[in-house]
């Protein structure tokens, strides 16, 4: 049986140049597909120059700020006198706030580990290359999962008396519910915005919202013995 003339096996990496071939891509080449040409920028010098410029501007800004404002440093540490409250740096106050509610193993090990693992695993079971809205497909099924997950998370927070984390969770849940009941053709621009957001967006929004609230509470609303105080009272 003779091979048709329009079906030829060969070595090539450009499908547009030889679309009728069965191409064997070698290790030294990369497969090319027929796509529209998009605007591109070279890593060097374009992107590298912009990154270097941003670093220089940030360094100058920090130097200027340091000339006008002193760092909020306390006195020399005294091992015989522990300040009350003993607060961590501001970027750890969210974690320290969790330690107030949960056992150290839960707040210091399990919660950060679960967060990191979830951020690693989510892209593998939720492949959404086009970044479509979470509730644009299988809306009923995903809404049921959303209701169960939200109720379970709220019950978990209430069980450990983490009421400061309930408000951000409820606010994000309300925004997700509005997005679930909206479409990309909704008359409101805000509803169209919420409807277009994927699962990863909602996870990061909830995480950042919780981090900001817990850090703010630990910074301004915690006094001696990690008790609840108002920031305008000494």
Brief description of this entry?
The chain has 234 residues and is mostly helical.
Structure keywords:
2 strands, mainly alpha, 234 residues, 7 helices, extended, two-stranded parallel sheet
What structural class is derived from the secondary structure elements? mainly alpha
Q: What is the alpha-carbon Rg in Å?
A: 27 Å
Average of the residue pLDDT scores: 82
Silhouette: extended
Kindly report the spatial arrangement of strands forming the biggest sheet: 1-2
Give the helices and strands as they follow along the chain: EEHHHHHHH
The percent range for strand residues is under 5%
Describe what you observe in this structure:
This protein has 234 residues and is mostly helical. The protein has a domain of 137 residues. It has 7 helices and 2 strands. The protein has a two-stranded parallel ribbon with strand order 1-2. Helix 2 packs across helix 3, helix 4 runs antiparallel to helix 5 and helix 5 packs across helix 6. The relative contact order is 0.08. The model has no long low-confidence stretch (mean pLDDT 82).
């Amino acid at each position: 049986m003779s091979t048709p003339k329009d079906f030829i096996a060969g070595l090539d990496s450009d499908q547009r140049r030889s679309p009728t071939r069965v191409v064997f891509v070698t290790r030294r080449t990369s497969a090319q597909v027929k796509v529209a040409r998009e605007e591109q920028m070279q890593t060097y010098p374009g992107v590298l120059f912009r990154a270097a410029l941003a670093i220089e501007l940030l360094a100058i800004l920090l130097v200027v700020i340091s000339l006008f404002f002193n760092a909020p440093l306390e006195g020399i540490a005294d091992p015989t006198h522990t300040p009350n409250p003993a607060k961590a740096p501001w970027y750890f106050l969210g974690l320290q706030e969790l330690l107030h509610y949960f056992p150290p193993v839960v707040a210091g090990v399990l919660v950060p580990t679960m967060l990191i693992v979830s951020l690693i695993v989510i892209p593998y079971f939720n492949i959404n290359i086009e970044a479509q809205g979470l509730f644009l497909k299988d809306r009923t099924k995903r809404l049921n999962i959303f209701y169960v997950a939200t109720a379970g998370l709220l019950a978990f927070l209430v069980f450990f008396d983490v009421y400061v984390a309930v408000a951000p969770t409820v606010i994000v849940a309300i925004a997700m519910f509005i997005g679930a009941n909206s479409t990309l053709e909704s008359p409101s621009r805000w509803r169209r915005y919420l409807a277009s957001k994927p699962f990863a967006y909602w996870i990061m929004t909830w995480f950042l919202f919780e981090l900001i609230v817990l850090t703010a509470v630990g910074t301004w609303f915690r006094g001696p013995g990690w008790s609840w105080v108002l920031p305008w009272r000494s």
